[in-house]
Amino acid sequence: SDAASSGAVTHPQWSSRLAFILAATGSAVGLGNIWKFPYITGENGGGAFVLVYLLCILVVGLPILAAEILLGRRSGCSPIQGMAQLARRDGVSARWGWMAWIGFVAAFVLLSFYSVVGGWSLAYVGLAAEGAFSGADAATIGGIFGQLLEDPVLLLLWHSLFMLLVVLIAGSGVRAGMERSIRLLMPLLFVLLLVLVGYAAVRGNFAQALGFLFTPDFSKLTTEGVLTALGHAFFTLSTGICVMMAYGSYLPKNVNIARTVVTIGLLDTLVALLAGLAIFPLVFANGLEPGAGPGLIFVTLPLAFGQMTGGVVFGTLFFVLLLVAAVTSAISMIEPVVEWLEDKGIGRMLGALMSGAMIWLLGICTVLSFNIWAQFHPLDFLARFEGKTLFDLFDFLVSNLALPLGGLAIALYAGWAMKPQTLREGIGLGEGLTFRVFHFVLRFLSPAAVLVVFVYNLG
Ligand code: PFF
Ligand code: NA
């Protein structure tokens, strides 16, 4: 009845719970943790933002992630076909299928700019390896980043290489190679982050960083900051966008979703906090600006690599691992699209190539946002979008609008359209208090949180 086998297409499945955890963690842990979390934390004043973000992960992100994975597993095929079929099976309107389209479009736009930043990591592998940071001061390192952004051809080149990598890996099958590389390289990234935190604790201003990250000062938090925190909870967990739904469609029935989601959430949050702890001590010790924006990690970490013993090796390794984390996330973004085309009878490689080409093309807008179109602010006539480049707008559209809206739809579907028992058994919870809390959160708390934040931001 509810099994994947009831769909028209029979999919391959992850080989085990561990395999799924690895792939889902590979999707979750990425540029969002190491690049985006520190820079938006810096832009939004630190502690209070971090607190709201953590709350959003707990009461909005994780419950919705669990629901999303379950919807995928129940549908057993690509989100677009799967949601409509599932709605019919649950006896509700097939219009629910629309939520998958939000995710579909969001994934396209998201990957288009994610790939450009992935390209920066690629560029920095080379820079670190050739010792470009050795002994350099903050101004020199800032200059290196500035030069990269100024050069549209170079940015386009790195963006193209990154997309090519993603298309080739995604096209050759979700499981091929990915499990192995994540199993090996994730722990390594983790260890390297610990080394960096250690370095920052010794050489940086650790006390000031701790104060900045963990002492909430609510006077620094704007309503837009709250929206950013909410959006980032979705972004960092890869939820609200039907990507985890696509991954969930390969999930064997006996895997406990509740436990899996807790594991993913813990790992993802840990990596983000470690990144913050590695970066902010250096920011403060070097008199850098916490709110410097998207370049933050690219102008602080190289400083550390330039000064530490073995910095060339550590630096190169770090950017390789950042690249791997970015690639495993990017692959997951393209998966719903590839899976959709596959269900329509188009081979994986061809599907990946076709969608990759379109995403690559859209990515050019982001490439130009940092140079030729830096002064092009298409929504300047709306006060709230004043001064935002195309890249800023894409990020806002996806992270702050599409993901929370997609998440809202998922919460409402799981909370209201599904039978409580189907939900409870699917998630893998007993009949006790935990499920009742979870159900309440999905029905009321998470939707309310999204709506309240939206309404405040409209006003
Ligand atoms: N969670 C990824 C990160 O933190 O970098 C980004 C991401 C991947 C968002 C996949 C959405 C997604 F569907
Ligand atoms: Na993440």
Task: Please explain how this structure is put together.
This protein is an all-alpha fold. It starts with 16 loop residues before the first helix and ends with a helix. 54% of the residues are buried. The model is unreliable at 1-9 (pLDDT under 50). The protein has one domain (4-458): Amino acid/polyamine transporter I (Up-down Bundle), CATH 1.20.1740. The longest helix is centred in the C-terminal third of the chain and has 33 residues, at 311-343. Helix 8 packs antiparallel against helix 14 (311-343). It has helices at 17-28, 31-43, 47-75, 79-89, 98-129, 138-150, 152-171, 178-203, 206-214, 223-237, 243-248, 257-285, 296-307, 311-343, 348-369, 390-417, 420-427, 433-458. The radius of gyration is 21 Å and the shape is globular. Helices cover 75% and strands 0% of the residues. Residues 28-30, 32-33, 236, 268 line the site of sodium ion. GO terms for molecular function: symporter activity. This is Transporter. The chain crosses the membrane at residues 18-35, 47-71, 92-117, 153-172, 184-206, 226-248, 260-284, 304-331, 352-376, 396-416, 437-456. It comes from Marinobacterium aestuarii. It is found in: Membrane.
Broad CATH class: Mainly Alpha
Shape: globular
- How many domains? The number is 1
Distance between the termini: 46 Å
Which structural category do the helix and sheet elements fall into?
mainly alpha
The profile of the biggest β sheet is:
none
Count all strands and give the number.
0
Return the string of H and E elements.
Answer: HHHHHHHHHHHHHHHHHH
Low-confidence stretches: 1-9
Helix fraction by DSSP (H/I, runs of at least 4): over 70%
Bound molecules: 4-fluoro-L-phenylalanine, sodium ion
Strand portion, in percent? Answer: under 5%
Mean pLDDT rating:
92
Count of DSSP helices?
Answer: 18
Q: Would you identify the CATH architecture?
A: Up-down Bundle
The CATH topology is given as Amino acid/polyamine transporter I
Rg calculated over all Cα atoms: 21 Å
